[in-house]
Amino acid sequence: ERNKYENNDVAGVVTGLAWTQVGGDILFIESILSKGKGVLSVTGNLGKVMKESATLALEYIKSNAAELKLDPSIFEKYNVHIHVPEGATPKDGPSAGITMLTSLVSLFTQRKVKKSIAMTGEITLRGKVLPVGGIKEKILAAKRAHIKEIIMCSENERDIKEINEDYLKGLTFHYVNDMSEVLAVALTNEKVKNAKEL
Amino acid sequence: ERNKYENNDVAGVVTGLAWTQVGGDILFIESILSKGKGVLSVTGNLGKVMKESATLALEYIKSNAAELKLDPSIFEKYNVHIHVPEGATPKDGPSAGITMLTSLVSLFTQRKVKKSIAMTGEITLRGKVLPVGGIKEKILAAKRAHIKEIIMCSENERDIKEINEDYLKGLTFHYVNDMSEVLAVALTNEKVKNAKEL
Amino acid sequence: ERNKYENNDVAGVVTGLAWTQVGGDILFIESILSKGKGVLSVTGNLGKVMKESATLALEYIKSNAAELKLDPSIFEKYNVHIHVPEGATPKDGPSAGITMLTSLVSLFTQRKVKKSIAMTGEITLRGKVLPVGGIKEKILAAKRAHIKEIIMCSENERDIKEINEDYLKGLTFHYVNDMSEVLAVALTNEKVKNAKEL
Amino acid sequence: ERNKYENNDVAGVVTGLAWTQVGGDILFIESILSKGKGVLSVTGNLGKVMKESATLALEYIKSNAAELKLDPSIFEKYNVHIHVPEGATPKDGPSAGITMLTSLVSLFTQRKVKKSIAMTGEITLRGKVLPVGGIKEKILAAKRAHIKEIIMCSENERDIKEINEDYLKGLTFHYVNDMSEVLAVALTNEKVKNAKEL
Amino acid sequence: ERNKYENNDVAGVVTGLAWTQVGGDILFIESILSKGKGVLSVTGNLGKVMKESATLALEYIKSNAAELKLDPSIFEKYNVHIHVPEGATPKDGPSAGITMLTSLVSLFTQRKVKKSIAMTGEITLRGKVLPVGGIKEKILAAKRAHIKEIIMCSENERDIKEINEDYLKGLTFHYVNDMSEVLAVALTNEKVKNAKEL
Amino acid sequence: ERNKYENNDVAGVVTGLAWTQVGGDILFIESILSKGKGVLSVTGNLGKVMKESATLALEYIKSNAAELKLDPSIFEKYNVHIHVPEGATPKDGPSAGITMLTSLVSLFTQRKVKKSIAMTGEITLRGKVLPVGGIKEKILAAKRAHIKEIIMCSENERDIKEINEDYLKGLTFHYVNDMSEVLAVALTNEKVKNAKEL
Ligand SMILES: [Ca+2]
Ligand SMILES: [Ca+2]
Ligand SMILES: [Ca+2]
Ligand SMILES: [Ca+2]
Ligand SMILES: [Ca+2]
Ligand SMILES: [Ca+2]
Ligand SMILES: [Ca+2]
Ligand SMILES: [Ca+2]
Ligand SMILES: [Ca+2]
Ligand SMILES: [Ca+2]
Ligand SMILES: [Ca+2]
Ligand SMILES: [Ca+2]
User: Is residue C193 in some structural domain?
Assistant: First the structure.
């Protein structure tokens, strides 16, 4: 499943870790821009809280356009659509926040996302990263999907310490407190192939 | 039932495979354009996820207008209406995604849809095709309706392999990973009769 | 009850056949135009699917304006209101589709509707007519209301064949596959008295 | 209670007959105009069907502006607000239709409503008056409120005939089939005091 | 609690009497203007009927601008916000109508509200005052809050007569039929301190 | 948890005290401005009453722009987004009112919020502060989070007096009646680092 995205030379596709009723799973956040007036739309059978994460992510980016070296006028010239595939599965909760934000920053900057990396964490309007639940199940899902690096909130480190070491082999953890750290780890400085001029 | 559509010299009518409470069934996706401002409307007693598929399909087309050789200005000059007949039956789920996208590309390009072909598969914003459920029941329904070719996700091939060969006689399967493959198989290069100038 | 409408020299009033919890019934579709911007509104305690039929009917007409000899600019200059009387009774289902479409075509062309005719059938965006349920009960209701001709989908002919011949005496059936056939039967070529100039 | 309205030298206040869970009752329809853009708003704890009656009434008036000697431009220059007092009581059903229409015609023409008259009846888009239920209870309520004349659909005459004559003493009934008859009976040709210039 | 408002040199704050599940209570209606386009917004955990009262109050004022000596253009230049404090308590029903209208007239005229006065009564679009329920409980609550004068509908006088005289000591009642009487009693002719120029 | 915000050199982040199903807790109100047209949006899995608090807070500020030395034109040039982190927890009730208002005033004035201070209290449209519930649980939560000063309504002082003195050690209480007092205590006169020019 993950291979579909592995070779992703496109911007805006990021792997997240989700906690569903049947255990942990990986999910993908996709986002695209189309000419428009700054409308944000979201699909993928998402609940209210997960939709709010998308709004938060976009607001954070708008508010930090300067730091992210983005021309603020692009927010008024494009519509943003975020999709989370596998529409048959209802999805909710705040833990896709950092994944959504990474997706959007990749999209707006056209920077390539690192390979074999996944992430889970709530985001705040100020760019803080908050801890989330279901860490053990998410780690197992990440391993099954051959993920190599994982980004999460530093307050989730204690959850990792409670997991049997054998399960953690081959995984590198990045503990973060701020979105800027997420972006520094997750995004390369390379532009995607055929990067769009925004 | 299918004969109604068989002779379809009009653009935008595509046969899908659905999985309903009473087993597999074929369904038809119809779409038309009318002069307007780019509004998408959807009818046919559809649930939230199936409506999202329509949005996804249109977003994908807008985002890939160049590859599809479409003038982006048409999206602002026409309204698009997608309908799934048999309003008495509630319909939902992501599996009509590739059918909807094929319908819209036929509509915008005025290319003829291949005869006796049906399809089922979820679509992502990036044009990936995802596997769906109910494959066995859908195949039986396709046979009853004299379908000859079926398009589905390559990950659904394993579902086909579990079906008794007798049921598969006379059917050709096209396993795909991307929407571009769906379109290459499903759409002819011939324009429909009385093709509209958009 | 029906006599109220029998002498209808006005455009847009058409008799349909409905299947309610207390058996078959006739219903009337009324529609009027008022100066406006192309807004469609619908009243009569209608459910979601019946409202969708109204949208479908109007979309079909817009898309086939040329064939119907309608100036497309009228759709932007008038609002359309469709009403189904007897507001105390909730109404739903797709079977009023052809009745609604006939009503709107009569309205836009100001052509007189044939006398003593009733109809039942689902409509698709492409103008196909689909079969509907409750045929026996609808026929009985039509007889009680002194209807003489009935239009329905050719696939509903098998339902008529299962009805005792005695019940069918005095009724003429028109079996159709396309909306164009419905209109050819149901609408006269005569304009209504005091026909509006649109 | 009724006395509050008896001396009504204002346009737009009309007495209706309602059938509630605690028996028949009289109700008042009030309407006012304010400078605006043609928006219709409705208050009074009304259900969906009763709100639709308000829409129907206004549409009928717009569509028959010429016959009612109304300048069509007024519909775009004023907002209309219809209120049904006694907000603690939920109200629904189609039977206030003719009362609402009479109220609005009084309002737009500034013609005085006849004294001591009440009415009940469903209205259609074409101005037909349909029969309604609860006639016996409504008559008793009208008598208690010293109503002298009552307007209803001619098909409700049979309900009146089933009522003991003693209850009907002092009441005059107007049986009608069309809205034009309602207006002829209910509205005087006198303008209200301080009639507005529209 | 009431003392917070007692010294109110601001316009738009009026004391109402409410009937809640735990007995009678006083409530405060606050309203403010801000530069805008005539939007009315309402907060305070209000139900549908209480929100309708706010709409009615504003419509009445617009329709009677001349009598109230208000320049009609102010309704388009300001937004109005009405709030009923104590958001933890859901509030509904029509009885705050006269309190809301008094609040808004105070606001638009910048006239001071009389001290130690409270009121309860439904309002109609034409400015009539209707009786409400829970009078005994409301009187007890008014006494506890050291209210001295109470305005209510003249039809509620019979409810007062059923209350033991001892409970009524120190209270003056104003029985009214029209909003104009409410305003005459409740509003002083003095402008509030720092009255706004509208 | 609180440390994330302790060092907050940014405007608009304020600590509140909440009463949840699992006892008292601290919560953070974040707010940011982005170029826009004065739209207020709110996220954080908030209920109706808590959303109303945000509206109230913004209305109060608009109405008191002069006193707060704010140029009224900024309200039309920026969108305001308020977020309450920890999206997995539903939040409701009026008690975050003063926290939201403090957050917005800090945002619009770019004044620094005092360190180690938390608050709880309902706000009214006129800037009064009302008492709230759950005081004991909130105090315990504040202590656990190393809060040093707490702002609440003077009517909540009686709740503090019922708490064992040992629990109150190290806490300073500010009892207030008006929002102006909240702001005087909670906001410093120092601008935040890199204060925005609005
Ligand atoms: Ca999967
Ligand atoms: Ca999965
Ligand atoms: Ca995630
Ligand atoms: Ca079927
Ligand atoms: Ca399908
Ligand atoms: Ca009937
Ligand atoms: Ca029908
Ligand atoms: Ca009554
Ligand atoms: Ca209280
Ligand atoms: Ca009250
Ligand atoms: Ca917490
Ligand atoms: Ca709080």
Answer: no
